[in-house]
Design a protein that fits this description.
It is a single chain. Helix content is 8%, strand content 45%. It is mostly beta strands and 170 residues long. The chain folds into 2 domains: 82 residues, RimM (Elongation Factor Tu (Ef-tu), domain 3), CATH 2.40.30.60; 63 residues, SH3 type barrels (Roll). The strands form 2 sheets. Strands 3-4-5-2-1-6 form a 6-stranded antiparallel β-sheet. A 6-stranded mixed β-sheet has the order 10-9-8-7-12-11, with no helix packed on it. A hairpin with a 4-residue loop joins strand 11 and strand 12. The chain is elongated, with a radius of gyration of 19 Å. The chain starts with a strand and ends in an 11-residue tail after the last strand.
C-alpha cells in the first residue's frame, strides 16, 4: 500500500532571527518543496503546518505560520517534513522514489525475478535502480532500452537487462 504522507526533507537549521528554517529536501529540488503551502510534521497528516517557502541555493527556506523567533525555529531542528501525495500531480511515467523501493524486478521476456529495488540513485544523465538479490547488489540504468514497464500498483518493474548487469560478461 502506498504511503499517503511522504517524507520529503529534514529541518537542518534556522535562517535569520524571525523564525525561518532551512530544510534539506529529499525531493527533486528546492523549488519543488517550496511550491507547497502545507507540510506535515508526522507521517499520518495529523500535524499540519502552513508554510511559505522559497528555494535558496541547494536548500529550501521555509517560514512556518506561528514560528516567529529563532528559538521557536531551533526547536524544530532535526524534524522530518512530509508532503501529502494528493497535493502533487505527477507527470506521465514519473513516480515517487518511495513507491519504487521494494518493487520486484522481472525479466520482460522470461518473467525471471531479478530481485527488488532497494534504492534509486540520481546520476544526472539518468536514474539508476539499485537491485538487491541474494545479498548482492546490481545496478540497472533507468533508460527505455532496459526498463520496459513500471507498475507501482502491481508491485513490479519489467526490464530487459544489458549484458553485464546480472552476469560477469564484459
Amino acid at each position: 500500500m502506498k504511503k499517503q504522507f511522504l517524507d520529503s526533507g529534514r529541518i537542518v537549521g534556522t535562517h535569520g532571527i524571525k523564525g525561518e528554517v532551512r530544510i534539506e529536501q529529499w525531493c527533486d529540488s528546492p523549488a519543488f518543496l517550496a511550491a507547497f503551502k502545507k507540510l506535515y510534521l508526522d507521517d499520518r497528516g495529523e500535524r499540519a503546518i502552513e508554510v511559505s517557502s522559497r528555494p535558496h541555493k541547494n536548500i529550501t527556506l521555509c517560514k512556518i505560520k506561528g514560528v516567529d523567533t529563532i528559538e521557536d525555529a531551533e526547536r524544530l531542528r532535526g524534524k522530518v517534513v512530509y508532503i501529502d501525495r494528493d497535493d502533487v500531480k505527477l507527470g506521465e511515467g514519473v513516480h515517487f522514489v518511495q513507491d519504487l523501493i521494494g518493487l520486484e524486478v522481472r525479466d520482460c521476456d522470461t518473467g525471471e525475478a531479478y530481485g527488488e529495488i532497494s534504492d534509486v540513485l540520481r546520476t544526472g544523465a539518468n536514474d539508476v535502480y539499485e537491485i538487491k538479490r541474494d545479498g548482492k547488489t546490481y545496478l540497472a540504468p533507468v533508460i527505455d532500452e532496459v526498463i520496459t514497464e513500471i507498475n507501482t500498483d502491481g508491485g513490479y518493474v519489467l526490464m530487459r537487462p544489458m549484458k553485464g548487469i546480472f552476469d560477469d560478461e564484459d
